[in-house]
Amino acid sequence: MTTLRIFTFFSLLTFLINISALGQKQIPLNETNFIGSYSITISFHKTTHLIFPFNIIYVDLGSGNILAEKVGKVENILKVKAGSANFPQTNLTVLTSEGKYFSFLVSYVENPQQLSYIFNDELFSKKSISAEATHLEKHSPLNTSDANFSIANFENVRFSEAQLEMDARTILQNRKSGKQISSHNGGTMLTLHSLHVKENIFYLPVDITNSSNINYDIDFIRLYIRDRKIVKRTSYQEQEIQPLYVYNTAQQTINGKSAIQKVFVLEKFTIPDDKVLVIEMFEKKGGRQMFCKIKSKYINNATLFY
């Protein structure tokens, strides 16, 4: 190739590159293109909770030095903890079901001053929070340790904990007498008066009555599904049911000559005729155990609750 041809080739190449560059519009970045990041601190010895207005659908960790996962069946709360101490600053990204994007700069401190943050939004339903939380500003992360309100969104349940509590109160106040299922032992009685269904949720209101003079301290109450008939020397399996919410869970002592009420909130389910749902209650340091056995027919005839 002659010198003239080489010069012509590179001149044409330079011309084409310049034309291509001119055809590409350069758009400068400005403040409207930037998404701010929240600064949070976490520790190796303590767990931090991030509470979002909508269900979490995606989490990205900037490094393996931080650990993050959703809280059980609660879809809108992320717990975050340091995987190692004194790690360099990293980032965390969260996307929620309503298309909201949250960016965080995560730093390590030995003793964080803030352990719970709530990220409010204009679409965060006021039905999910109480009056104490109405002062929260849009997109403002705050420590809510002093706020007494419910902000959990449960898996497959579109009601907040506050709504579940309100429904439980309404059922206890307005329930009508129906077929009762009860178990008694030593002057105490566990009674299921009715079963209510609302969309994909069951409400089981129970009375715990102590007609004796000896206080009854609840050790635990568990719900599970098992075979209706148990043959001796034959193994059987239990399928434990974890309540979504328990109304009046704090009261664990039934004084003598008194009674308390609780409501167990469960995800809707059905069972075959050869199975039963069992509500089992054990006394702490005592022998007054009770078992309410609920057949499939009772469940299938649950009262509709609006």
Order of helices and strands: HEEEEEEEEEHEEEEEEEEEEEHE
Return the CATH class of the largest domain: Mainly Beta
- Total beta strand runs: 21
Largest beta sheet, briefly? 7 strands, mixed
The portion of residues assigned to helices is 10-25%
- The first-to-last residue Cα distance is 88 Å
Approximately what portion of the residues adopt beta-strand conformation?
35-45%
What is the global morphology? elongated
Oligomer kind = single chain
The average pLDDT value, as a whole number, equals 81
Tally of separate domains: 2
Structural class: mainly beta
Fold-level CATH name of the largest domain: Immunoglobulin-like
Contiguous runs where pLDDT drops below 50 for at least 5 residues: 122-150
Question: What is the number of helices?
Answer: 3
CATH architecture of the largest domain: Sandwich
What Rg, in angstroms, do the CA atoms define? 29 Å
